[in-house]
Amino acid sequence: MKLKEIAHARTGDKGEISNISVIPYDEKDYKWLRETLTAEKVREWFQDICHGEVVRYELDGVRALNFVLDKALGGGVTRSLALDKHGKTLGMALLDMELENNISGESV
């Protein structure tokens, strides 16, 4: 199952740091998402562009996960020649990640 089937994303940036919030469409999927979508998986997913640490924050009150990716924007908005200097497409790229059900090992 692709992450985009159960969640949407919102991105932001500050300098060379990108943050991606992942919010499930249905609150009942939050616990499973919290157990499944780790900072390590996100770091691996973005290994070609994220050259720093990935930290995950759990926002239980609003049922969202926020990932902060350091050194992920090629120098930041004012220094990068990249077409997507703000990293807005990183949220869509993350939503394309394939997730597996941790209980059975099968794709959900």
Short summary of the structure?
Helices cover 19% and strands 26% of the residues.
Distance between the termini: 5 Å
CATH topology: Gyrase A, domain 2
Q: From the structure provided, what is the oligomeric state, counting identical versus distinct chains? A: single chain
Write down the Rg.
Answer: 14 Å
| Count of domains | 1
Q: What summary fits the major beta sheet?
A: 4 strands, antiparallel
What form results from the Cα inertia axes?
globular
Strand order of the largest sheet: 1-2-4-3
Low-confidence stretches: 103-108
Q: What is the typical, i.e. mean, pLDDT?
A: 83
Provide the CATH architecture: 2-Layer Sandwich
Summed up, the helix count is 3
Q: Can you walk through the features of this model?
A:
By secondary structure, the chain is α+β, with helices and mostly antiparallel strands. It has a single domain (3-95), classed as Gyrase A, domain 2. 19% of the residues lie in helices and 26% in strands. It has helices at 30-36, 39-45, 90-95, and strands spanning 7-14, 17-24, 54-59, 64-69. Strands 1-2-4-3 form a four-stranded antiparallel β-sheet. A hairpin with a 4-residue loop joins strand 3 (54-59) and strand 4.
Keywords:
19% helix, alpha+beta, disordered C terminus, 26% strand, four-stranded antiparallel beta sheet, Gyrase A, domain 2, globular, 108 residues
Question: What topology emerges from the helices and strands here?
Answer:
Layout: E1 7-14, E2 17-24, H1 30-36, H2 39-45, E3 54-59, E4 64-69, H3 90-95
Antiparallel strand pairs: 1-2, 2-4, 3-4
